[in-house]
Write a structure and sequence with these properties.
single chain; mainly alpha; Amino acid/polyamine transporter I; globular
């Protein structure tokens, strides 16, 4: 039997993990980049995505409290639409989240290294160090990881809130006109690009099995996190536009540091490095925790290789943690030799996450009732509004779906072989389940 995960996460730790999972590398780049692309009308895109976050987060919390399982979205989709759909969704999220960790580490490292005068190679080494730190923290257990996340989340939230407050005296109404200089169509495109900044609402569903009281604590953590994250994001974007701190690559890449430096004084480089590394550490720490639990659940339910379902004496899916950290580190190595930057990788998580959310909301419509179902319907509709703006990147999830279904067919074929004898691969066509199953 796959060993069960331990229930240790409190409400405060849940809020910290939520905040760390969502308030990540996106806030370093996207506020100023979105304003450059769409002008002050970018605030509409941020408000839309923040509004979308409300039904998304509450629907996912309702599903997670009803079906507390490390499989998260994959479990919900399996219950609603069957094991094949659940498996594909699980692969979507796993690859999106693991790739996003490479992106997050690189963004934080680039941001910090460039203002410390470090060469490109040193930036990639810093990204690798961030991933190693997060992996080791998670191997010590979710309690240690969550406590660390409390410190990261509190520090980052304070910095972002401070960036808003110190910018208020520098606001000028003239900076809000013309409101949509590049047309309203650009707002829709920006909404898709900045969606990466809201990647994370689904992450805590993979940790729901480890909350002390999932039915009570998951919704509480979600409601507190929704309010806090919306305040931080919209506040930073208002500060960016109100002070016109955007427009060039140099400014766009260091907007938070510049807002703080302009309001408080001090060297932009030092602030930039500190903010970037803290945000990258916090986000990576949260996503290693969440993604490894999904890997554990998929392996437990035979949608991934069986070794990822092993749990250490600390109650940690150690093989899955190392696999996730190793995948992200490999991405850093490949990125170095291929000459890629964080922006090169953005297309992968963006394309996969929109479809993951859409599948989760559709599952909510199928599985939930009353007000919760209404929220799921609203979330589904808002995801469908974004989908047409995704463009040609839909080839990414299409390719992954083919590979996932091919793997499922291969496992099913092994289970059905005459010499299988009902062995460890028997029942390989099953999707993510709510209880541990035999390896």
């Amino acid at each position: 039997m796959a060993e069960p995960l331990r229930r240790t996460i409190t409400v405060s730790q849940g809020v910290a993990l939520y905040t760390g999972a969502i308030v990540g590398a996106g806030v370093l780049l996207l506020p100023a980049l979105s304003a450059t692309e769409a002008g002050p009308a970018a605030i509409v895109a941020w408000l839309f995505d923040a509004a979308l976050g409300i039904p998304l987060a509450l629907t996912l919390a309702a599903l997670a409290s009803r079906y507390p399982n490390a499989g998260g979205v994959a479990t919900f989709v399996t219950k609603a639409f069957g094991p094949a759909a659940g498996m594909v969704t699980g692969w979507f999220y796993f690859i999106a989240a693991a790739t996003a960790q490479t992106l997050v580490a690189l963004t934080g490292a680039y941001y910090g290294a460039s203002y410390l005068g470090l060469p490109r190679g040193a930036a990639f080494l810093l990204a690798g160090a961030i991933l190693v730190f997060a992996t080791l923290a998670n191997l010590r257990g979710i309690r240690a990881s969550a406590r660390l996340q409390l410190a990261f989340a509190a520090t980052v939230a304070t910095m972002l809130l401070l960036a808003l407050l110190v910018s208020v005296p520098h606001f000028e109404s003239a900076n809000w006109t013309p409101f949509a200089p590049h047309g309203w169509g650009e707002v829709g495109s920006v909404a898709v690009v900045i969606f990466f900044a809201f990647f994370g609402w689904e992450a805590i569903t993979h940790l729901s099995e480890e909350f002390r009281d999932p039915e009570r604590d998951v919704p509480r953590s979600t409601l507190i996190s929704v309010g806090l994250i919306t305040l931080l994001y919209v506040g930073v974007v208002v500060a960016t536009i109100g002070t016109a701190t955007y427009g060039s690559d140099d400014v766009n890449r260091t907007v938070i540091a510049r807002l703080l430096a302009d309001g408080l004084g001090g060297p932009v480089g030092t602030i930039a490095a500190g903010v970037a590394v803290l945000i990258a550490l916090g986000t990576t720490n949260a996503f290693v925790a969440a993604t490894s639990r999904l890997g554990y659940a998929l392996a437990r339910d035979r949608a991934f290789p069986a070794p990822l379902a092993r749990v250490s004496r600390r109650g940690v899916p150690g093989v899955a943690v190392v696999a996730v950290g190793g995948y992200a580190t490999l991405g850093v190595i490949v990125g170095y030799f291929a000459g890629w930057g964080p922006e090169t990788l953005l297309v992968i998580p963006n394309s996969l996450v929109i479809l993951t959310f859409l599948a989760a909301m559709a599952a909510g419509v199928r599985l939930l009732h009353g007000t919760r179902r209404v929220l799921a319907v609203i979330g589904t509709a808002l995801c469908l509004v974004l989908l047409p703006f995704s463009g040609a990147v839909v080839f990414v999830p299409a390719a992954i779906a083919v590979v996932a279904l091919g793997y499922r067919r291969w496992r099913s074929g092994r289970a059905a072989a005459p010499d299988a004898g009902g062995g460890p691969d028997a029942g390989a066509d099953a999707g993510p389940r709510t209880t541990a199953t035999k390896d």
